[in-house]
Amino acid sequence: MKFTEAQLPGVVIIEPDVYEDERGWFMESFNQKRFEEGLQSLGQPIPKPFVQDNQSCSKKGVLRGLHYQLEPFAQGKLVSVSQGAAFDVAVDLRTGSPTFGKWLGIELNATNKKMLWIPAGFAHGFLALEAGTLFSYKTTNFYSKISERSICWQDDCIGIEWPELESYFINEKDRSAPLLSRADLS
């Protein structure tokens, strides 16, 4: 596995080793020891163990996010796409961070097989670029409805450059999310 520090401190792009032959391909999608060694090689802290796996399937144009959870249920997420493609986004919400409010976007898809490690303290969201996009999340904490928060996906102060599609499908909760300046961060 190849671990590369992203432009936002703490966020890491992970590229698994993929072995192909006449039958197709094989890859190790997760290995705790390699994950920890890869983060340590970049000077990143080892997160809490993963406790929950989630999957979603989205139509083309579905935008989910930008979501996060407050302490004590803040989540680190290891995300990937096993079918289709998504533009994945992380936004730094760590109070006092020199990159507070900055964002990172990367395409995750079934072809490049890249994964993104997003530590606790970041909001997360994605835009499905293809129909039937299967998105997987490993999280370091359990989901807590009372701790769940979101920020506006089109906040001009953050300035995310979402890919242009014919239409976006966004649920009411995400459409009515507050701007970062009004978000509950504690």
UniProtKB/TrEMBL annotation:
Its UniProt entry gives the catalysed reaction(s) as:
dTDP-4-dehydro-6-deoxy-alpha-D-glucose = dTDP-4-dehydro-beta-L-rhamnose
The enzyme's first-digit EC class, named in words, is isomerase
Q: Does the keyword Isomerase apply?
A: yes
A molecular function (GO) term: dTDP-4-dehydrorhamnose 3,5-epimerase activity
Q: In which pathway does it act?
A: Carbohydrate biosynthesis; dTDP-L-rhamnose biosynthesis
Q: Which UniProt keywords apply?
A: Isomerase
Which interval of the chain is the signal sequence?
none
Gene3D superfamilies reported for this sequence: Jelly Rolls
EC number in record: 5.1.3.13
InterPro entries membership: RmlC-like, RmlC-like_jellyroll, RmlC_Cupin_sf
| Quaternary structure (record) | Homodimer.
For this chain, the family text in UniProt reads: Belongs to the dTDP-4-dehydrorhamnose 3,5-epimerase family.
Q: What's its job?
A: Catalyzes the epimerization of the C3' and C5'positions of dTDP-6-deoxy-D-xylo-4-hexulose, forming dTDP-6-deoxy-L-lyxo-4-hexulose.
Q: What is this protein called?
A: dTDP-4-dehydrorhamnose 3,5-epimerase
Which species is the source of this protein? Answer: Pseudomonas kulmbachensis
Q: Which gene encodes it?
A: rfbC
